[in-house]
Every structure is written in structure tokens, then in C-alpha cells.
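Weekly sync, protein design subgroup
Attendees: M.S., D.O., the rotation student, P.L. (late)

Item 1: inverse folding check
M.S. brought a backbone from last month's batch and wanted to see whether the design step gives back something sensible before we order anything. D.O. pointed out we never logged the input encoding, so this time it goes straight into the notes. C-alpha cells as presented (265 positions):
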């Protein structure tokens, strides 16, 4: 997947774009109805004709633009997840590249995650094994695992500072039950990400899948890619139209470009 942003950046650079990596924007400066400059955390003021904002849309409103519109304040958010990236000495013959393990309770999982805002009592989970098809992703004879358990977002009353390690152990215990014998003991390196970490990375309510894809928050009903009150601020990314996921986000980038060159009003 990394090849996609690398290729896009390469194409942009070929046309004269300069990237400033590892630079945080802290404010979009406004003059009348137009954004006039972006301010960065290292004190730069970069004047602009157009601003394209890629952070999660509600966070961009709150932190960079100022007064958040009511329609954005009212958004509902998708569930979150805990992921473990693990380096392990174990491999299992039955594994495919992507492995989805369903619990018996399918509707129950959604009820727990979305309505009751609880952790899954009968988990459905994803285990991906990238090193199965690309052994260069792990040291010789070892494997890289990506383990994802859906969880409620931060609307739920869960203290992730306390729960992080507890839940990690529960995830390994579930894996043991689902055929990953002695997996926990085989882990040599691990990196755990909780809803709190997603929030710190800039996702509202710790929801890495952004505002929920309910009917009224999908496609044309999702927050517009033009920022209300600005003539020249355009959103792109999972928080705006058409929605979440790499293909949707790439379309949102194209829509942003079309807004700028004026092909779409
Ligand atoms: C665990 C997980 C699994 C997923 N699985 C899939 C999948 O299988 N298939 C799929 O299609 N999608 C999947 N997705 C969803 C997909 O990854 C996202 O919808 C998509 O990457 C979001 O793209 P984006 O451009 O909106 O945000 P991002 O890719 O997060 O880009 C936003 C960028 O803005 C930067 N930024 C934020 N604030 C500032 C600031 N103030 N100043 C400067 N820079 C800033 C961030 O650093 C970041 O680089 C998954 C997501 C997660 C978290």
C-alpha cells in the first residue's frame, strides 16, 4: 500500500510540488472569506491560494479552522479497534494471508460495539500474516502478524490506559482458543494501538474509521469537501465525501483536485 502514496508524491514532485514532511500545521489563517496562510508548529507562515486539509474533518475544524459547524458536531462515529503488530517465531499451517475468525454471535457483536458500547464477549477478529507472501518482512524463519479486534470508540466508558495490557492478554487468549496455539509465548516484539492512541493520532473519538457510514453520513450526505465560510479551503480524506477506506479516500483526493481547478462546483 505504501507504493500508492509514494507514487502520488513522486508524480506531484515531478510537477513542481515541494513536500514539508514532519511538519504540523497548527492554524489556518483567515482573511475575509479566504484562507490566507497556514501556520506550522515550527513557526513558519506559508501564504496560500488554496488549502487542502487531510486531517480528520472534525479535528481540522476544531484545531485549524475554528468554529465547528453544528452538522459536524452532530456526527456519529464508527467503532474503533485495538491492533497488535507482532513479530513471532510461530507459524501455523492453516493460515492464509488474511484470516477472519467469526464468533458465533454476529449480530451480537454489532449490538455490543455500537449500541451497548462494550467490548465483544464473543470476538470476531482479523489476523493478517504479511510475511506469508513476502518473507522479507520478517527475519529469516520468523513472521510478522497484524491482529485487529474491533472495539467501541471513545464514546464508551473504557479506561484504555488501564485496559491496554489487560485487553492485549484477552486478545492472545482468544487467539489461543481459535487455533493459534502458544502464540503469546512466541511473540518477540509487539506494538499495541488502542482507541486512545488513534485519538492521539488525530482521529475524533479515537475512531480510526472516522465518522460512521450510516445512510445519512455516506456519499453525498457526508460532510462536504468545501469548508463552509471559506472560498478556498477543501477537505480530503476519510472524514469527507465519499467516505472511509483507501479507494474512497483516493476519490476524495481527486474530488479535492477537481474543486480546485474548478471542474466541479
Ligand atoms: C487498522 C486499520 C485498518 C484498515 N484497513 C483498511 C483496509 O483493509 N482497506 C481499506 O481500504 N481501508 C482500511 N483502513 C482505512 C484507511 O486506512 C483510511 O480510511 C485511510 O487511510 C484514511 O486516509 P486519510 O487520507 O483520510 O487519512 P490519513 O492516511 O490518516 O492521512 C492524514 C494525514 O494527515 C496528517 N495530519 C493530520 N493532522 C495534521 C496537521 N495538523 N498538520 C500536518 N499533518 C497532519 C497525518 O499525519 C496523516 O499523515 C484501515 C484503517 C485502519 C486504522
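Designed sequence read out in the meeting:
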Amino acid at each position: 500500500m505504501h507504493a500508492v502514496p509514494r507514487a502520488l508524491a513522486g508524480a506531484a514532485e515531478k510537477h513542481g510540488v515541494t513536500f514539508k514532511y514532519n511538519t504540523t500545521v497548527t492554524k489556518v489563517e483567515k482573511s475575509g472569506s479566504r484562507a490566507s496562510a497556514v501556520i506550522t508548529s515550527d513557526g513558519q507562515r506559508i501564504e496560500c491560494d488554496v488549502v487542502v486539509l487531510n486531517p480528520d474533518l472534525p479535528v481540522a475544524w476544531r484545531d485549524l479552522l475554528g468554529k465547528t459547524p453544528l452538522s459536524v458536531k452532530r456526527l456519529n462515529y464508527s467503532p474503533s479497534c485495538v491492533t497488535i503488530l507482532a513479530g513471532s517465531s510461530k507459524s501455523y499451517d492453516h493460515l492464509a494471508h488474511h484470516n477472519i475468525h467469526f464468533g458465533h454471535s454476529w449480530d451480537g457483536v454489532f449490538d455490543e460495539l455500537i449500541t451497548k458500547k462494550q467490548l465483544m464477549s464473543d470476538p470476531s477478529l482479523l489476523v493478517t500474516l504479511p510475511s506469508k507472501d513476502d518473507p522479507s518482512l520478517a527475519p529469516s524463519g520468523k513472521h510478522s502478524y497484524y491482529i485487529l479486534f474491533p472495539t467501541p470508540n471513545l464514546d464508551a466508558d473504557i479506561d484504555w490506559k488501564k485496559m491496554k495490557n489487560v485487553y492485549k492478554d484477552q486478545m492472545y487468549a482468544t487467539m489461543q482458543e481459535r487455533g493459534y496455539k502458544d502464540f503469546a509465548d512466541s511473540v518477540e516484539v509487539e506494538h499495541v494501538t488502542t482507541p486512545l492512541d488513534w485519538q492521539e493520532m488525530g482521529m475524533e473519538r479515537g475512531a480510526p474509521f472516522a465518522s460512521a457510514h450510516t445512510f445519512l453520513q455516506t456519499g453525498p450526505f457526508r460532510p462536504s469537501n468545501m469548508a463552509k465560510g471559506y472560498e478556498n479551503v477543501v477537505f480530503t480524506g476519510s472524514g469527507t465525501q465519499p467516505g472511509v477506506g483507501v479507494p474512497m479516500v483516493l476519490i476524495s483526493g481527486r474530488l479535492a483536485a477537481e474543486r480546485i481547478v474548478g471542474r466541479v462546483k
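Discussion: The radius of gyration is 21 Å. The first strand starts at residue 25 and ends at 31.
Action: P.L. to compare against the previous round before Friday.
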